[in-house]
Amino acid sequence: MTSRRVFLKGSALAVFGVGSIPAWLSRSVYAGETQRRKKILVAIFQRGAVDGLNMVVPFGEQRYYELRPS
């Protein structure tokens, strides 16, 4: 069960985050108009992330248990 303090803290952070998004977004939109840069590709590799099949296990599906015995 979540305490009242944790709930209020999370709510305050969410409200602050939603309120700061439009200012950040407008600055980034206008920053691109003054100068042109070459395109940059950013790739993020996250190791140890959640495996989609193990997050919601298809209970009773025999083929799943054959492919993933452990």
Structure write-up:
This protein starts with a helix and ends with a helix. It has 3 helices and no strands. The model has no long low-confidence stretch (mean pLDDT 75). By secondary structure, it is mainly alpha-helical.
SSE inventory with pairings:
Blueprint (H helix, E strand, L loop, with lengths): L3 H31 L17 H4 L6 H6 L3
Sheet-strand content, in percent, reads: under 5%
User: In percent, how helical is the residue content?
Assistant: 55-70%
Runs with pLDDT <50, length 5+? none
| Shape, per Cα inertia axes | flat
Class derived from helix and strand content: mainly alpha
The whole-angstrom Rg is: 22 Å
Major sheet summary line: none
Can you summarize this structure?
This protein has 70 residues and is mainly alpha-helical.
